[in-house]
Specification:
- The structure is a single chain.
- The protein folds into three domains: about 70 residues; about 130 residues, Sandwich (Jelly Rolls); about 60 residues, Phage tail protein beta-alpha-beta fold (3-Layer(bab) Sandwich), CATH 3.55.50.
- The strands form four sheets. A nine-stranded mixed β-sheet has the order 1-2-5-6-9-12-13-16-17.
- Helix 1 packs across helix 3.
- The chain contains six helices and 21 strands.
- The protein is α+β, with helices and mostly antiparallel strands.
């Protein structure tokens, strides 16, 4: 009997898992549907939840899915970027060391609520009747449909938000009525003990490159580009041609290819250390 349960749990994971991605909407619907057909006293689903978590740790090494007695869903990224789909089709990308959690009732009719820790990118499915709320450790973010990222991984305990498209309402949990409305390209920060966030400039040219896997430059100074690439890849890049600018779009998965294109396009020599 126990072996059969383990086999079913493993198959459940394989049916809903792809490399770097676990479809929580599909998985949760399946669990809920199967449980309705069982007797209330049957505890199979709670046993399965533990097996699912264990199996996912073995399959991916970085993605953790758990269903508690309240049907809570917890997604944890330990050492790699993890992409997941929420019940409303919203896409969330978690940076290493980040978590996301929600309950089934958090996605009922007029509300969509999630909790997060760490750093996460959101591409929210638009729904005018159902706002999407993200609760961080010190902040609250409300949107209808947009793309944005929240970063709580700074060593100084400051929460940063960057809006890629649409608009968001960003506030402190201390005083949610004293927040800021942010639109495309805007960035704001909030200290853990502050009651109101403040607007800042984007810290890099492409703050969401880690999630979108692309660098986009429009007449950008070559020195700013090299600084961003240096920080992103953990190397030191330099050139003597400091007055040139570049307009280009690069995939973020091959630094050497990026440098080769830049050198040919700008007719410069870039040193890498």
């Amino acid at each position: 009997m126990m072996k059969d349960l383990e086999d079913k749990s493993l198959q459940f994971v394989l049916d809903n898992y792809r490399k770097g991605m676990f479809d929580t909407r599909k998985a949760l619907d399946k669990i809920t549907r199967e449980e309705r057909n069982r007797h209330p006293e049957n505890r199979f689903m709670y046993y399965v939840s533990g097996l699912v978590a264990s199996v996912l740790m073995m399959v991916g090494g970085y993605l953790f899915f758990q269903t508690s007695e309240e049907l809570a869903t917890n997604i944890v990224s330990s050492n790699e970027v993890v992409r997941c789909i929420l019940p409303d089709s919203t896409v969330v990308i978690l940076a290493p060391g980040s978590t996301l959690s929600y309950l089934p009732e958090d996605f009922e009719e007029s509300k969509r609520n999630v909790k997060m820790k760490g750093k996460a990118y959101f591409s929210v499915t638009r729904d005018r009747k159902s706002p999407f709320l993200v609760y961080g450790q010190h902040s609250a973010t409300k949107v209808l449909g947009t793309k944005f990222q929240i970063n709580e991984q700074r060593p100084d305990s400051i929460t940063e938000i960057y809006v890629i498209s649409g608009q968001v309402y960003f506030s402190s949990l201390l005083k949610e009525g004293e927040g800021l409305v942010l639109t495309k390209g805007m960035e704001a920060a909030l200290a853990f003990n502050e009651s109101r966030p403040h607007i800042t400039g984007p810290s890099t040219l492409n703050p969401s490159a880690w999630a979108e896997n692309v660098f986009v430059y429009n007449d950008a100074p070559v020195m700013d580009v090299l600084k961003e690439l240096s920080d992103f890849y953990g190397v030191r890049l330099a050139t003597s041609e400091t007055d040139k600018k570049i307009t280009a779009e690069f995939k973020a998965d091959d630094l050497d290819n990026i440098l080769e294109i830049m050198e040919k396009t700008l007719e410069v020599k870039i040193e890498k250390e």
